[in-house]
Every structure is written in C-alpha cells, then in structure tokens.
Design goal:
Keywords: Signal. The protein is an alpha+beta fold and about 240 residues long. Helices cover about 25% and strands about 40% of the residues. It has a single domain (about 30-240), classed as TULIP domain (Bactericidal permeability-increasing protein, domain 1). The protein binds 2-acetamido-2-deoxy-beta-D-glucopyranose (3 copies).
C-alpha cells in the first residue's frame, strides 16, 4: 500500500502550477516594451530547446518530430500518381535568427514571426502510379531545405480556471515563406545518374514547387499549437507574465 505522503505529494504535484524554468525570462505586461521582451524570451527559449523540458511538457526541438498521423496523401494510383508524405521531421527550429512577438491581451492572440537562416525537413515519400506511361513505385526519403524561411504563427488563446488562471490554445494558424526551396529525393530512380538528373530538374523548379505545396502547411498547425499548449497547461498565467 502506498503511504499517505505519497498521495499528498501526488496531490500537490497535480494541483499546483509550476514556475517557468529559471533560464526563461519573464516579461512585464505593463511595460511598453513587453512585445520586444516576449520576442527575446521566445527566441531564447527556442535556443534552449535543444534539450527537452519534460516537466514543462516541452520536447526537444533539435530533431522536431511531427506526430506520425500527420500525413499528406493525394493523387490516384490508377489514373495518375498517388503520393504520400509522412513522418515529418524538422531540423533547425532551435536556431532562429530573429523572433518577433506580438501579444494582444484583449483578444488573447499571440502572433509570432520567427526567421531562420535555414530549416531542413525530412519525410518519407511514396509514389505509386505512372508518369507519362511509365509505371512508378517508389518509397524513399525526401529532404527539403528552406532557405531563410520565416514562420508566421497566430495562436488564439482562451483563458480558463483550474485552481488558477491558465491559457489554452484554441486555434493555430501557420504560414511560412522562404527565399528558396531546395529538394532532394534520396532514391527516385534506381540509377544514380538518373536520380541526380531528376533531382536537378526538380530543383530548378524549387520556388514553384514550394508554392504548389504551400497549402500542406496546415498539417503543421496542430503540431505547433500542441507544442505551445504543452507549456500553457503547466504554467499559470501569473507565472508566465508579470503585471497580469
Ligand atoms: C482513381 O480515379 C478514378 C476516376 O476518378 C476512380 O474511378 C478510381 O476508383 C480511382 N482509383 C483509386 C485507386 O482511387
Ligand atoms: C534573419 O533572417 C531574415 C529572414 O531570413 C533576414 O531577412 C534577416 O536579415 C536575418 N537577420 C539577421 C539578424 O541575420
Ligand atoms: C507576422 O505574422 C503575421 C501572421 O501571419 C502576419 O500577418 C505578418 O505580416 C507577419 N509579419 C512579418 C513582419 O512577417
């Protein structure tokens, strides 16, 4: 039988909110440079997420793994090409070069504009069907390099009570732009030379391909929303900000 003190410890841990990690700075809502401060804090926090903060619900973003049920599948294997991107991983999220934040406490909306020198994303890629009339059946790794991307995120927050005031994310909007997009399929063709040539041809259309696939960015919205929500669940509003 577990002792009473075990349950007491459990009770206290479950009910009480925790403070931000000591390495995360706190900003004062009542100061005029609040948004600048928040941008800096989030920037620093991203830098620190090269390791996880499990007690804050934050995973490491060194190799950010988007949940495996996030899958983009389109096309038709009988008439055309069925394509599937799955198992997304992002590299570079911990190294932004510029982070801007804007928090509106009237509408509880947080806008983030985070720029990076580069972000690599890697997925599994499957294609089945025909190109021209040539049958295709491929499973390979796809790697994309976003050159100087900016991630624009809008988090709609809602306040709720749970023995203290907390925020939760009720909606996330994600939009990204990038200066260039370089792609590589590790093995599109069995033949090395053909693989190289195909990748080179695809790369010439990098910007066009980025535009064509841009709508797929909605797949990342639950991921970013969930990431932020993990922290908000654990830390009371008064521990997030001063002057609230
Ligand atoms: C592919 O599309 C055609 C035409 O819309 C449809 O009849 C067929 O069932 C589809 N095949 C598959 C495998 O989805
Ligand atoms: C950060 O990245 C943005 C977008 O890629 C770029 O315009 C800007 O010059 C960079 N800023 C710094 C301080 O390097
Ligand atoms: C920041 O992101 C918001 C929301 O997507 C967008 O409306 C705004 O134009 C962005 N600002 C900059 C400087 O990129």
């Amino acid at each position: 039988m577990k002792s009473l003190s075990f349950y007491l410890v459990l009770l206290v841990t479950v009910c009480s909110s925790i403070k931000l990690p000591p390495t995360f700075q706190k900003c004062d809502k009542t100061t005029s440079n609040f948004d600048d401060c928040l941008g800096k804090v989030i920037h620093d926090a991203l830098n620190q997420l090269d390791k996880p903060f499990p007690e804050y619900g934050l995973p490491s973003l060194q190799e950010a793994e988007v949940p495996p049920d996030v899958v983009a599948e389109f096309g038709n294997s009988t008439y055309g090409l069925r394509q599937k991107f799955s198992n997304y991983k992002l590299f570079g999220l911990t190294k932004p070069n510029l982070t801007k934040a804007r928090m509106d406490f009237k509408t509880n909306t947080l806008v983030l504009n985070v720029s990076f020198p580069e972000i690599v994303f890697r997925t599994d890629y499957e294609a089945e069907g025909a190109v021209f009339i040539l049958p295709v059946n491929i499973a390979t790794t796809f790697e994309g390099l976003l050159v100087k991307p900016t991630f624009n995120l809008v988090f709609k927050l809602q306040e709720y009570e749970n023995e203290g005031r907390y925020f939760k994310v009720v909606d996330t909007d994600f939009d990204m732009n990038a200066e260039n997009f370089k792609l590589e399929f590790k093995r599109l063709a069995p033949n090395k030379r053909l693989n190289y040539e195909l990748n080179a041809a695809i790369n010439e259309k990098g910007v066009e391909i980025f535009a064509r696939f841009k709508h797929l960015q909605v797949f990342f919205e639950p991921y970013f929303g969930g990431l932020f929500d993990g922290l908000l669940k654990k830390v009371e509003i008064k521990e997030l900000f001063d002057g609230v």
